[in-house]
Amino acid sequence: xxxxxxxxxxxxxxxxxxxxxxxxxxxxxxxxxxxxxxxxxxxxxxxxxxxxxxxxxxxxxxxxxxxxxxxxxxxxxxxxxxxxxxxxxxxxxxxxxxxxxxxxxxxxxxxxxxxxxxxxxxxxxxxxxxxxxxxxxxxxxxxxxxxxxxx
Length: 151
Hints:
alpha/beta, eight-stranded mixed sheet, two-stranded parallel ribbon, 10 strands, 32% strand, disordered N terminus, LD-transpeptidase
């Protein structure tokens, strides 16, 4: 189900959000076909960003997932790269998603040290944003914010 502005969408949003413990006035929609992320508040589109999503359609999972983790300057543990350094592929912010079977540390919305990848199908499954864009988003979401990922 794709969330859209309007009265019907408001009812559908409540039905979708009802399965999560925290109701939120804000939500995000990631459209993999357009490589875009849109921030909504009170069912009004506020801002749309260009993003990078998975190399294949299956890499970035479809569904509705809550934000469960927010990290400033995340470490890239696979290669032990400190947070906040230019070499860090996670950029300056991590917004972790509770995809079933994960804990918010596997799939997320994050910055990148590869800004040329934005707008492309280039990730291993996460949603990449320009560092300045993910910094803005980080300040506008909270644990419990719902993210819908669609084709």
